[in-house]
Give the backbone structure.
Amino acid sequence: MTEATGFEAKTIHRLLEVDPKGGGFKRGDDNPLDCDLLVVDEASMVDVMLMQALMRAVPDKAALLIVGDIDQLPSVGPGQVLADIILIRRGASGAAHRGVSAGRAKPHHHQRPSHQPGLDPDLSPPGT
């Protein structure tokens, strides 16, 4: 990911700055991430609690791109966040996991409620 984008790739735990002394993360509502765009790769491995912590740390101005394949490794913790997002986006309430067309989601642009049209994220590599 780093080679393709020019940005450093990190695990979600490292991005959120795990606080081993106090438990939880240093990043959240009171200390959001500094980003315009956040790409979450291998999202099938993200559990509910980690996704909740991540969503709290994503600033309202940022776009979020979730990438993954529900037929890959599942999360170790509770939940199947990626599969649930795909089912919700397809309007398949109560549909079984196998009901998603071959486990692939079509690309979809999602705007957070506070997104302002014309405010595009800065995708240039750091230092340029």
Observations:
- The two ends are 18 Å apart (CA to CA).
- Helices lie at 2-5, 12-15, 48-57, 81-89.
- Confidence is low (pLDDT under 50) at residues 94-118.
